[in-house]
Every structure is written in structure tokens, then in C-alpha cells.
Amino acid sequence: MSKTMILLKPALMITYIALTMSLISMSKSDPLTEESTTGLTIDLIHRDSPQSPSYDPSLTPAQRLANALRRSFNRLQRFKADRSPQSDIINAGGEYLMKYSIGTPPVPSLGIADTGSDITWTQCQPCLKCFKQELPLFRPNSSSTYRKIPCNAANCTSLSEITFCSVRRKKCLYDEEYGDGSFTQGVLSTDTLTLASTGRKRVSAPNFVFGCGLRNGGIFSGGESGIVGLGGGKASLVRQLGVLTRGKFSYCLVSGSDKSNSSKLNFGANAEVLGKGLVSTPLVKNSPDTFYGLTLEGISVGNQRLELSDSGVSQEGNIIIDSGTTLTLLPIDLYNKVENALKSSIKLKRIKDPQGVLDLCYFTRNDIRNIPQVTVHFKGSDVKLRHDNVLVRTSDISLCLAAKPVQDFAIYGNLAQVNFLVGYDLVKRTVSFKAADCGRP
């Protein structure tokens, strides 16, 4: 026993496209209208933006950032330890929220968009143990298209690492536990999932497999209803949407200080990353295949290239790219090299982080724009970071290196991805980067 599944996103739209799909068998090529095969784009809401139900107006920007930085360390537990089919943590690291609808008629819900999870799940009535959420709980009995998955169905047996049979062996149950103590348990089910594109196009996905959570708990803020799984496994949203996504999705994340614009999540043809400045790196097979592994070779600060390995040979898949982790977490030796190189280049007074989280901080009330170029060297690609990908403001007087050392393995966090169009191609097995102004329409 151990995992989960769910649903995804709503909004008020006009055009309606029916996408018939079967869960894990994506070899079928279902007929789609030409419009639906062009892909779709969805807004992502940062959990600390005024658009989020989790928004706390009493917190200062520095306090919100400090909370996000601490969530990075909680989220690390997801990727540490066994890396088994059982995920490790949940919401503590979820930074972006995604609207969706489930059922007929469609019921709005809000989930954490998580590239570190496969299973999509939402809280359901009758809830035996649930955390508080802003939106009404989903009522399966009120949906004409809701179905419980039988115990002997392929959708149950193919997910045997997370499912088990009820006592009378009539329905398929799931159980997902996470390393921070969060959990979800319930009935593996199908229903119609509705996604609303920013182009006012509505896409309907019948027979979407998700977890109808009856017992759920842990570190949740009260805004979200569950998780939207965007990982690489067969149960994820990307895989289940099959012919619509063609194994492709991308996102463009706006800065946390941008209160007027939303980040964007793209699927299918809309997810193409093209044009001048595009660089791509191989996507490395991980176990489990939920996590998106890349190969980090080193980081340059100015003209000084700092290798991850003294031998010059890096282990394949040694860093996980994750939209839900705020900080970039680097192996200790590489982090120390980068920190020392920046200390030699930036001639400002160093201070302790007022939030007590980051290690290298400078006293300044202004942005430091003339720092040396920092370039992340992935296998086959060099990603040139902007100053605000490298340094983050933690108070009115402090700018700090947006990275921390870890003893385990590395995570490429979302601050390093802000204002980049980041594209995942699960067919070609690549991740692509292109510098962009993600706040532009």
C-alpha cells in the first residue's frame, strides 16, 4: 500500500472539447478535433500571491519568502531516502496551485501542481478525516459520471504499488503516505476531469483515474483540495491526457514579487519550446519514474568553471528538477566552490540572513545587478542565470544566494527557473530551457 491519484482544473470557458481517454493505456489514439490537438495553456497561482486562498496579507514579502525557503527543506524529504515507488512528502513544498473541475456537473477544485508526484487526488465526501479547505468537498454521489474502480480492473492491478482491495473485494482502495507524516487514503475512482485553458477553451477528459480521498491529513494550508500529479509516472496527469499532451508540457514561472501576472502551464503543442537561445539536456530515467532527473556537470561563476566532480565525470541523473522546491540544493563541495567564487567577486558587506535560512548574504537595499555571470552546466546545455535567479531578497537590507548545501543529491529549484520557459518532452526524453519574460501576455 502506498500511493494516490486525483483530478484537475476549472474556470469559466465556452468551447467544450470531449477528450476520450483511457488511463494508463496511452497507445490508443483517440479521435480529437483539430482545436484540441493544438494543446492548451492553464494559469498557475503562486501560493503566496493575492490570487491564492492561502494568501496571508499580514505577512511581509520577506516572511513569505522565508516560509517558502523552509518548505524547500521539508520537500527534500520527498526525494531523499529510498526513492521507492512511495512518495515522501506533499504540500509542504507545493508552491504553485492549479484550478480544475471534477465530475458532472463539474465541481471546482484547487490542487498543488507538483512535478514531484504522479497521483492526482482530492478530498471527497463522506470524509472520515479531512483537513480544512476553502472549496466545498467533492460529493461523488452528486456526479452522474463518477465510478468506483473494481478491484479486478486493469486500472487497479496496474497500480498495485499503491492499491489494495476492500474487504469484500469489490472496490479498489489506495493508500499514499509521505515522509513528513502527510497521507491520503480513499477509493480509486474515475470521473470526468475538466481543464479550462486561458484561451477560454474547455477540455473534458472522461474516465480520468484519480484518488477520492476519505482520510487525508498533514501539512496543508487550507487553500488546496489535494494534489495535481505532473510527474513522469503512468498515473500522472501528463500521461493520462495522452493524445492531448503527446507527452509534452512546459511552464513559465513569474517572480514571486509579480502580483499582477500568473505563471503558465502548457500542454501538447502549446508546450513547444522553440527559437533562439533554446538549450536542451537529456531527461534521465529515475526510479521511480516520477522524478525528472538531469545530469549536472558544474557551475560557472564568471570565467571560472567549477566542476561537480574532481574527475570531470558526473553521475547521470544526479539532480532533480522540481517546480515545487523554492531553493536550489547543491552537493556540499559544489556549493562551497560557488559560494567562495561569489565571495571573491562581490565586494559588499556580508551579513547573517535575517530569516536564519540562507548562508551567503549581503547588506544592501538595492539589487546587485553587476554580479558575474552564473551559468549552470547540464549535460549538453549551458543555462545562463539572471541575477534574480542567483540572489534573493530576504529582507529590506539583505540579498542572499538562493541555494543551500545538501549531503544527499541535488534539486534544481523554482527560483532558478523563474523567467525561463521550461519544457519537458517525455517522448524524446529531454528538458529544454529558454530565457523568457514570463509576465508578458
Automatic annotation (TrEMBL):
PROSITE patterns in UniProt: ASP_PROTEASE, PEPTIDASE_A1
Residue intervals of the Peptidase A1 domain: 96-434
GO cellular component: extracellular region
A molecular function GO annotation: aspartic-type endopeptidase activity
Transferase listed as a keyword: no
Tree of life domain: Eukaryota
Entry keyword annotation includes Glycoprotein: yes
Pfam families the UniProt entry points to: TAXi_C, TAXi_N
Annotated compartments: Secreted
Gene Ontology BP annotations: proteolysis
Annotated InterPro entries: Aspartic_peptidase_AS (IPR001969), Pepsin-like_plant (IPR034161), PEPTIDASE_A1 (IPR033121), Peptidase_aspartic_dom_sf (IPR021109), Plant_Aspart_Prot_A1 (IPR051708), TAXi_C (IPR032799), TAXi_N (IPR032861)
Keywords: Aspartyl protease, Glycoprotein, Hydrolase, Protease, Secreted, Signal
Family statement: Belongs to the peptidase A1 family.
Protein name, UniProt field: Aspartic proteinase CDR1
UniProt organism field: Sesamum alatum
